[in-house]
Amino acid sequence: MYNFTYHRAGSVDAAAAKLAEGDDPKLLAGGMTLLPTMKQRLAMPSDLVDLNEIGELKGITVSGGTVTIGAMTRHAEVAASAEVRQAIPALAKLAGLIGDPSVRNRGTIGGSIANNDPSADYPAAVVGLGATVVTNKREIAGDDFFTGMFETALEDGEIVTAVRFPVPEKAAYCKFPNPASRYAVVGVMVAKTAGGVRVAVTGAGPCVFRQADMEKALSSNFSADALSGITQPADDLNDDIHASAAYRASLVAVGAKRAVAEIA
Amino acid sequence: MTVKVTTTVNGGQVSGDVEPNTLLVHFIRETLGLTGTHVGCDTSQCGACTVHFDGVPIKSCTLLALQAEGHDVTTIEGIGEPGHLHPMQAAFQENHGLQCGFCTPGMIMAGIGIVERNKGGLTEETIRHELEGNICRCTGYHNIVKSIAAAARDM
Questions:
Q1: 3-class SS at B114?
Q2: Which residues have a Cβ under 8 Å from the Cβ of B88 and sit 6 or more positions away?
Q3: Interchain proximity A102–B133, CB inside 8 Å
Q4: What is the pLDDT of residues B87-107, one digit of tens each?
Q5: What is the pLDDT of residue B120?
Q6: How many pairs of residues across A and B have Cβ atoms under 8 Å apart?
Q7: Is A45 within 8 Å of A7 (Cβ atoms)?
Q8: Domain total for chain B?
Q9: Which domain holds residue A254?
Q10: Residue B65: which CATH number?
Q11: Is B66 part of the contact surface with chain A (CB cutoff 8 Å)?
């Protein structure tokens, strides 16, 4: 990888200040995507601002029907958290399906959502559970956060500090992982929440999306049978060596049914 | 421009001057001369470079050496020695959990993590599932799984 200037930030404010100074700076969270990308020279930041030593960005709190996860909390911590497993088991399960154990010991929720890989798992949780992304500048509704392939609503200099998940009545996540990389070929989060039924799909398209037809059907009848006959159009879905668009479309329907069957 | 990094490796404090883009695995192998930690794929998939960082397995090809500042690193050299093998090393020896041996240091460091994460009871299915980040091209994994299960009984 090309060389860069390394900064170890001790606080969010210090990280924001360093981010404002650099020529083409990037934040270093878990590094599980950024460092491999830099090795391939697909990213060549002038400066890396390391968030790993910032205590205020780490940790999980559950109170008042909300699970708040600090941006630098590792996937392994979310997967193993007794509190998350009790409040939103589907979220703990999702975190435990990311990558492999060594990757889960480094990768973070903030890094995952800020990168917005089309095959990442966390976007399905943020959208499917109707979460709120908290940054050093504002709060962003999960529905508005992911704007396109590797694109988010984050502005220059904006740092994700936490994600707040409202505890749903029930939720389940069904994932078809790529057998080699463990990225989601398709992942479907289905949740019955105070604000209605939500179905969020990752992996299938260029960006996480809600499946409105399925949400409507499940709103009147929350059962796998209600999804019979509802198909996911293959138009605009990802089509690559791992899976064709038509196959992904089929996996969306199957994944949604399996997720509902788990909790209906 | 090099930067000084000071960290704890296998219980002793070490320091060295590294470029910011130096990976932890290269610091371990080239600066410290601890060549038991291997570089296989260099893309964080194969797990040959697995070391323990603050007590948990990580892939040292996907961490900067500078990120180890003030942290605690354990490599394969730090867990046992000839005549006093770690139970996981002994189990790999007894169960023939290796052929060429290239992946073995990573397998052993990952295996210790698997046992420690599953103190309440470790099934063969769990071992196979949690080995997904470590690739072996020789053994077909069967004896590696047997080794980790055997070590779990002794750890």
A1: helix
A2: B79, B108, B111, B112, B115, B147, B148, B151, B155
A3: yes
A4: 999 999 999 999 999 999 999
A5: 84
A6: 77
A7: no
A8: 2
A9: 170-263
A10: 3.10.20.30
A11: yes
